[in-house]
Amino acid sequence: TLYYYRVYAVNPHGAFSPDSTNAAAGRTIIPTVPYQNDCEGTLADWTFSGSWGLDTNNPHAGGGCLSDSPGTDYANSQDTSAKTAVNLTGTAWPVLTFWSRHRFASGDFGYVEISTDGGSYPRIYGFGGVATNWTRYTIDLSQWKNAANLRIRFHLITDGSGTDEGWQVDDVAVSDYGPGSPAALPFQDSFEAGLSNWVEAPWVAATNEPYAGVYAA
C-alpha cells in the first residue's frame, strides 16, 4: 500500500507549519520468501472484497481458514476476492502452495490469479463443481521470480442462479525451491521411486494400470 506523509513543526502554543519539502511517499513492507500464512487471527496480510473473511468451520489446520462466505452460502452474482502479496526478488524457483476445499453450484467458479501491477490478473488455476476433502495444491511461480510485489488473488465469480457453501482456503505459502540440480539428458522417470523429481500436488504415484513397473503418476 502506498502512503503519503508530510512533517510539521508544532510549537508549545499549537501553532504549526509544514516543512519546506513536498509530501513524501512510502510503501508498506511486502512479505518476502519464505512466506507462510496459516489464515488465523486477524488476517492482516490480506485484502478482502465482498464477504470474504475468517471461517472457523472445519479449517484444514488450526482454528481458522479463508472463506468467501464464512458460516453461510455465497450469494448469486458475486465477484469477490481475497488478495495477498509477496516479494519474490532474489528467488530462483518460487512455488505457491495452499490447501483448498469447495462446493460450487453449476456456473460458479473460483480462480487463483496473479498480478505484477495490480491491474491485470491472469488466471493460473481454476476450481468448479464439488471437492469437499482438503487437498494441497502447488503452483510454479518461476516466471515471476523477480517480481518485487506479486499479488496473489483467490477470486470467486458466481452467476445469477443457484448457490452453495463456497470456497475455503488454508495454509497459503510461497517457498523457494532453489536453483536445484537440473537432471542430465537423457531424462527418464518410471515413478517407481515416487514423485521426488517433480513439483506436484495433488498428483501421486499410483498403482492403477501403470504402463510398466508398479507405479505411474
Quick structural summary:
By secondary structure, this protein is an all-beta fold. Helix content is 0%, strand content 40%.
Description:
Strand 2 and strand 3 (16-18) form a beta hairpin. The chain contains no helices and 15 strands. Helices cover 0% and strands 40% of the residues. With 217 residues, it is mainly β. The strands form four sheets. Strands 5, 7, 8, 10, 13 and 15 form a six-stranded antiparallel beta sheet that branches. The protein has a five-stranded antiparallel beta sheet with strand order 6-9-14-11-12, with no helix packed on it.
SSE layout and pairing:
Layout: E1 2-5, E2 8-10, E3 16-18, E4 24-27, E5 35-37, E6 47-49, E7 53-55, E8 65-67, E9 79-86, E10 94-103, E11 109-115, E12 123-127, E13 130-140, E14 150-157, E15 166-176
Antiparallel strand pairs: 1-4, 2-3, 5-15, 6-9, 7-8, 8-15, 9-14, 10-13, 10-15, 11-12, 11-14
Q: Can you write the helix and strand succession as a string?
A: EEEEEEEEEEEEEEE
Question: Percent range for helical residues?
Answer: under 10%
Counting DSSP H or I runs of 4 or more residues, the number of helices is: 0
Largest sheet: 6 strands, antiparallel
Number of strands: 15
> What is the CA-CA span between the terminal residues?
42 Å
**What is the averaged pLDDT score?**
92
Low-confidence stretches: none
The SS-based structural class is mainly beta
